[in-house]
Design brief:
The structure holds 2 protein chains of 2 kinds. By secondary structure, chain A is of the alpha/beta class. Chain A is built from 11 helices and 14 strands. Chain A has an 8-stranded mixed β-sheet, with helices on both faces. In chain A, strands 2-3 form a two-stranded antiparallel ribbon. In chain A, strands 9-10 form a two-stranded antiparallel ribbon. In chain A, a hairpin with a 6-residue loop joins β13 and β14 (380-382). Chain A is globular, with a radius of gyration of 22 Å. Chain B is mainly alpha-helical. Chain B is 54% helix and 4% strand. Chain B contains 25 helices and 5 strands. In chain B, the strands form 2 sheets. Chain B has a 3-stranded antiparallel β-sheet with strand order 1-3-2. In chain B, strands 4-5 form a two-stranded antiparallel ribbon. In chain B, β2 and β3 (239-245) form a beta hairpin. The longest helix of chain B has 22 residues, at 416-437. The chains are: A alpha/beta, B mainly alpha. Chains A and B meet through α1, β6, α6 and α7 of A and α20, α23, α24 and α25 of B.
């Protein structure tokens, strides 16, 4: 008898990690490629439309009715007024006046409809495509899968960088292994610290040789996968120490006027760092803007957050365009869910049933709205977008190709979250 | 009682199934009889081994042999006090041939200030949210309160009672800190149900749980016990003071939009029928620690077991429920029951676990058990917590320090406020290191969470490159290079180097222009090795 997926012991993860480090790695592809496979069954496989991706992650869950899906006719839905944008017929919040001028670059999906209403569970679902606990394994995040599928294994910099204050397993590589973990940057103004060794290069080399030799006994006797993880991470760190590309992490090299334009705050600095990393050909970058969990003082907090979001995102998109990077870089704006369209007290609660995300770059057709919520912003009336739809869309754009089956090493077939994802064909005109 | 009997039936069901599966095992009746006797810590250790060994035999997994003294000493230090043993403790222990030395060191460690510090690190993470709102509150009095509780080995139920029924101002009662750092009713319910009951009822906040059978009523029934908690505030001489109380007419904790009105209800469905004019939380704690509620003791036992053994008897540790019985359900029931009978004695439970053969096995796998991560055939290699890593580095670096100056005969009198500030400052350095290395909240003890930034700090930061001071000190008492290498191994890895390792290190030194610097390289390599930052 097969147990339901979620009852399989968590410890299997360890076993998977072991396998992932060795020969079984290529047969362990997660669901994403399989989703992409299904997504492309109808049509011949698509070539990649984008070489890189940046996710602007609004941590905590941004309210759609205060940002990109306003309901001005319903007083209870919010106090912020809609304003006209560069695209006739599309209105967004008055808190985003700079971005309003470049809305023709964006496709706004107003019909996200997902299922997880708690932060960590929703983060896991939106970042990995699986619900937390499902299958008893730790699922790889999209960033980790992108690192494996489109990353350059020989690159000096990691393929996946997360500029995020909060680290949790939803970012992680899960069972595909430490090789594809994100490089976390906690503070973009500091970048990556301790890149310079305090001793001369030849002593560094001698120390590392010594370390490697002295490690052998422990590796042999204890056979712990942690040893491989450790060597992997140290190898990556040393490669960065020795690379001239690592200076991409130093935003202090940017002129002050540029830094002002992006905003001298965590998000503006994160966007600026992301641009520098794209230029160094990092494949997957997440830029976090934390603080959207506005249970209590929603309006004050939203005003503050949009004050960082608007200049940061606008400068970022404009800069990418100017430098010719936007056409082959996908930019996604999202959180883990939206917020209740109506207030309770001065706050808004978590709300997964209807919310908004946004796509830019990668040659997508901008200046359009996909899907629609009802007059109160509380249900999706047209073109609901599920988590599999959403992630399959991104996969398709990145050209992540179905190469392998989704059968775990014990022969257990992985149940797909949704057997029939419908990627957003609207993005491609 | 409805709940109690429901759980009991499920428990009997599990026991019955196991008894049917494996011949020669205790019958359900015998197992229950075991529950009824109060066992000493060594007796409970033997009982742990009986059940672990039985499952290993059934799975045909050979157990690994007993850990060497060196392996044991390092492990028991890291698990109980959160640091590697200092050099001066290592050699005497290895030289001691008395069989009781292992039990003795366990007892010594439980009485040490480092145990208090280590427990406080863990419980601080369990009880104070890592939110911006919580960070704005003062924590120091709460942390001092935790330290006092662990120093006195307060029974776990009393310890929790102190926290949940704390009433008054924070400056007078540090225990108020924990309720005070929670902003809303759902936040406090989520945390305390996970930590104290080991259940994930959070998802039932908005809808019935997708996987488990928790209903919205389970969630809001528990939440209702916290509905009278009110933050207190006063301003004296321009200083703001906060507190909590279940009495008075201030506004209670904020209600989330998903709030549903329920009467206070114990987990499992029995309504509490409380007097509305009285505080609710004392009654909640009565129920928590009563024998009607198996979750409280089991959640603690399972979490502690996971810390020491690398993996909970039930995983995830906050998902105890009938459909998720874990690997050794009888053992969990026995440990929970014995913990309760001991008067929720935390030292007792730590002794019982660490005295068991299961705990004292080597981490080296043998042929046939290398793939096992669930049945305790060998001790998993655990990763040091961020605090343990920082403290272990300090334990080593302290060898390079001069002996501390004798404290002045007449220590200056510090006002209570100055004392608080001093103790806060002392915490600051440890905290900043730990924050840099911290990954997910409450990670699995075997999860590798070090990334490139952390590796760079371990390799290149000043704090990790002070090894030459240690070399200078060691050179004053040890003249031979080999002897210094020996000392470095004992001080970092708690063992002697093998001949091969000694040769590698000596060869490195010969190849370098400066012997002191080269010995510093050896210290650097040891501190950056997997063996150093793991607990095995």
């Amino acid at each position: 008898m097969n147990l339901p997926d979620w009852q399989v012991p968590l410890a299997r993860r360890e076993w998977l990690r072991l396998s992932a480090a060795g020969v079984a790695a290529s047969s362990l592809t997660g669901w994403l490629p399989a989703l992409a496979a299904r997504a492309t069954e109808a049509k011949p496989a698509l070539a990649a439309r984008a070489k890189r991706i940046v996710v602007l992650w609004m941590d905590g869950g941004p309210p759609h009715t205060d940002t990109f899906d306003l309901k001005p006719d319903i007083a209870e839905c919010g106090i912020f007024k809609p304003i006209d944008t560069a695209v006739p017929g599309i209105q967004i919040s008055e808190l985003l006046p700079q971005f309003a001028k470049i809305v023709d670059r964006a496709a706004i999906a107003r019909s996200m409809s997902t299922v997880e209403n708690e932060h960590l569970r929703a983060r896991v679902h939106l970042r990995t495509g699986y619900r937390d606990g499902q299958g008893g394994v730790a699922w790889p995040s999209l960033g980790s899968i992108a690192s494996r599928e489109i990353g350059d294994p020989a690159a000096d910099l990691p393929s996946y960088v997360a500029i995020a204050e909060r680290r949790d397993r939803s970012h992680g590589p899960g069972f595909i292994g430490t090789r594809h973990q994100p490089l976390y940057v906690m503070n973009p103004a500091k970048g990556v610290e301790n890149l310079a060794a305090p001793v001369p290069a030849e002593q560094v080399a001698a120390r590392l040789a010594l370390l490697e030799n002295l490690e052998q006994g422990f590796i042999r006797d204890y056979r712990a996968p942690i040893s491989q993880d450790h060597q992997m991470v140290y190898g990556r760190a040393v490669q960065m120490m020795r690379s001239s590309k690592a200076k991409a992490f130093d935003i202090s090299a940017e002129p002050d006027a540029v830094r002002e334009r992006y905003g001298k705050n965590r998000f503006g600095e994160g966007c600026l760092l992301a641009r520098r990393l794209l230029e160094a050909d990092v494949k997957y970058i997440e830029v976090g803007l934390e603080g959207w969990d506005t249970h209590f003082e929603n309006n004050d907090q939203i005003r503050k957050l949009c004050g960082m979001l608007d200049p940061g995102m606008t400068a970022f998109i404009s800069d990418l365009e100017e430098r010719g990077l936007l056409s082959d870089t996908l930019v996604v704006w999202m959180g883990e869910f939206g917020r209740t369209p109506k207030f309770k007290g001065k706050g808004r609660d978590h709300f997964a049933k209807a919310w908004t995300t946004m796509f830019m770059g990668a040659g997508i057709k901008g200046g359009q709205v996909i899907g629609r919520t009802d007059a109160t912003g509380s249900t999706v009336e047209d073109r609901p977008v599920s988590v599999p739809d959403f992630l399959a869309t991104i996969c398709q754009i990145l050209g992540i190709d179905p190469a392998t089956e989704t059968v775990l090493p014990d022969g257990r077939p992985v149940k797909l979250v949704d057997q029939n994802p419908r990627p957003l064909a609207e993005l491609h005109g | 009682m409805a709940f109690g009997s429901r759980f009991f039936r499920a428990f009997l069901g599990i026991v019955g199934t196991i008894a049917l599966c494996h011949r020669g095992e205790l019958s359900a009746e015998e197992a229950d009889a075991k529950l009824a006797i109060k066992l000493t810590a060594p007796e409970l250790a033997r009982e742990i081994d009986a059940q672990i060994d039985e499952a290993l035999a059934a799975k045909r997994l050979p157990p690994s042999p007993r850990a060497s003294d060196a392996e044991f000493l390092r492990r028991v230090y890291l698990d109980i006090v959160g640091t590697i043993p200092p050099l001066e403790r290592v050699e005497p222990f290895l030289a001691d041939s008395r069989p009781e030395k292992r039990a003795e060191v366990i007892d010594q460690l439980l009485m040490s200030p480092e145990y208090v510090r280590h427990m406080t690190d863990q419980w601080r993470e369990h009880l104070i949210p890592s939110t911006a709102a919580a960070a704005r509150r003062r924590h120091e009095t709460g942390l001092l309160w935790l330290e006092e509780a662990f120093r006195a080995n307060r029974p776990y139920d009393e310890f929790i009672r102190g926290i949940l029924t704390a009433d008054g101002m924070q400056r007078d009662n540090g225990a108020t800190t924990f309720l005070l750092t929670h902003q809303s009713l759902d936040e406090v319910t989520d945390r305390l149900s996970r930590v104290l009951l080991g259940v994930q009822i959070t998802c039932a906040q908005c809808h019935d749980h997708p996987f488990a059978d928790w209903k919205q009523g389970d969630y809001w029934g528990i939440a209702a016990f916290f509905s009278k908690v009110k933050p207190q505030y006063e301003r004296i001489n321009n200083v703001e003071h906060y507190g909590v109380s279940e009495r008075g007419d201030r506004k209670p904790l904020m209600l989330p939009p998903s709030f549903q009105e329920f009467a206070p209800t114990y987990l499992g469905g029995r309504e509490a029928n409380l007097d509305k004019s009285e505080p609710y939380l004392p009654r909640f704690v009565d129920w928590l620690a009563s024998d009607e509620n198996p979750y409280f003791a089991r959640a603690f036992v399972n979490r502690l077991w996971r810390k020491f053994m690398g993996r909970g008897l039930v995983e995830p540790v906050d998902d105890l429920r009938e459909a998720n019985p874990g690997t050794h359900p009888r053992l969990l029931a026995l440990l929970g029951e014995q913990f309760r009978r001991s008067g929720f004695d935390i030292h007792y439970l730590i002794r019982a676990i660490t005295l068991s053969d299961a705990y004292q096995r080597t981490s080296r796998p043998v042929d046939g058990n290398e793939g096992d991560t669930e049945w305790y055939s060998h001790m998993p290699v655990k990763v040091m917590s961020p605090y343990a890593l920082g403290d272990s580095v300090q334990t080593f670096m302290r060898l390079g320090d001069n002996p501390p100056a004798a404290p002045p005969a007449e220590a200056p009198m510090l006002s209570p406020d100055e004392q608080l500030k001093a103790s806060q400052r002392a915490r600051g350095t440890r905290d900043s290191f730990a924050v840099f290395f911290k990954g997910e909240d409450n990670p699995s003890p075997t999860a590798y969470e070090t990334g490139v930034p952390q590796a760079l700090r371990l390799m290149n930061s000043q704090e990790l490159n002070r090894g030459s001071r240690v070399i200078t000190k060691l050179s004053q008492t040890h003249k031979e290079r080999a002897a210094i290498i020996e000392q470095l191994y004992l001080a970092t890895l708690t063992r002697h180097p093998t001949d091969a390792e000694l040769q590698i290190a000596l060869k490195h030194i010969e190849s370098q222009p400066d012997a002191t610097r080269a010995l510093g390289d050896v210290a650097w390599a040891l501190l950056n090795s997997t063996e150093f930052f793991t607990n095995h």
